[in-house]
Specification:
The chain has twelve helices and two strands; from the N terminus they run ααααααααααββαα. It has a two-stranded antiparallel ribbon. A hairpin with a 2-residue loop joins β1 and β2.
């Protein structure tokens, strides 16, 4: 007898991952500004539902019936989302100019599913949504400014503003960080000793702080 084991759903973790997939999907479509330009903001609910379906299926092993019940879709719609071809969806996105006005009004289930599946795959590879990262960086900078007397974290984030994550090697950031010091050490040299890839601004600060701790400087 085979006993099926499913990971327990942490609703907070689920919401967080779905949001990341949703924002990455928007990035793939060119961002909210592009969607507004093409008058396709009506696609957002379809993308959100597709992001839920993909995450529930791939990470939590929900069945089509369970996803349909949780997200409020029909079983057939869920099946179409999960069977969508990510590469075909990407092709359509890259040729968005060629869509008819009718197609621009409504995002087809297959396309939404394909985009969400592609976004989820990229998130798992460490390619977070740049729009979400920029927002997080701004929030982190503001928090650092408020609580930090020696603002090396603020200077690091300020100097790296606009850089794309994940950062995969120190050469991508060392030059930009020259002249910034933390506890007397050059951060451009510290980044030679931290772990990569760095997927978020917060993780970069964490890695630098951890290195300082190992040197017993904090």
């Amino acid at each position: 007898m085979v006993i099926e084991l499913k990971p327990q759903v942490d609703e907070s973790e689920l919401e967080s991952l779905v949001a990341r997939v949703f924002f990455k999907s928007i990035d793939l479509l060119g961002g909210l500004t592009k969607l507004a330009e093409y008058r396709t903001l009506t696609w957002l609910p379809s993308l959100a539902r597709a992001a839920y379906a993909v995450v529930l299926s791939d990470k939590y092993f929900y069945t089509e019936e369970e996803i349909a019940e949780k997200v409020g879709l029909t079983k057939n719609t869920v099946r179409n989302i999960l069977r969508a071809d990510p590469e075909l969806a990407l092709y359509k996105v890259q040729h968005i100019d060629e869509l008819t006005s009718e197609e621009k009004k409504e995002l087809r289930v297959h396309t939404a599913g394909g985009i969400a599946k592609l976004a989820y795959r990229m998130i798992k590879e460490g390619q977070e949504a740049q729009s979400l990262l920029q927002f997080c960086q701004q929030m982190t900078e503001q928090a650092v400014q408020v609580v930090c007397e020696a603002p090396w974290p603020y200077l690091v984030l300020k100097q790296l503003r606009g850089i794309k994550y994940p950062i995969t090697k120190p050469e991508e950031i060392a030059e930009k960080l020259k002249g910034i010091k933390a506890q007397g050490l050059e951060i451009s040299e510290i980044v030679e000793h931290i772990n990569y890839p760095i997927n978020t601004p917060a993780l970069l600060l964490h890695e630098i702080h951890e290195y300082l701790q190992k040197q017993e400087l904090v």
